[in-house]
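Sat 14:20. Reprocessing the chain from the morning session after the first attempt stalled halfway. Input below, unchanged.
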Amino acid sequence: MRMEWVLRVFALVCAVLLFFAPVSGRTTWISAEPRETGGTGSIRHSAGWDWVAPLCGVVAIVGLAVGAVARPRVAGPVLGAAVATVALAGAAAAAWGHWRDAASGALDLRGFTTHPAPAAPAFALIAALGALCALVLALGWLKPGDGA
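Finished this time. Tokens:
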């Protein structure tokens, strides 16, 4: 029972931490020509990963809450933990995919230097760890009894 509580709290903390993704820094493209000489200067863009992460965090929190409230039964908690797992895995995939594309040069623009969002890998790791905890909860709740 104690392990179930630890996993639930850890997954919940990971989901709440995803709320900080929009303030973690954005991908920036800096022009070779400054604005004063007719260039465009710099461009900052979120690329969507840092808005997907908090939304997935909300879905994960709701799933974990449903699982906690319906805990004596099996179907509700397993479904809630599965929803949380999918949401957190989606946030991890969005953050990691953006980082991978930016770091590999897939997001490069002609005449610009790309600086990837600095915190994307950290948020990908946070979301992946939360997804792992939620998955272990779901698997533990599949068997009747005390759970994970």
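Residues 93 and 124 are 7 Å apart (CA to CA).
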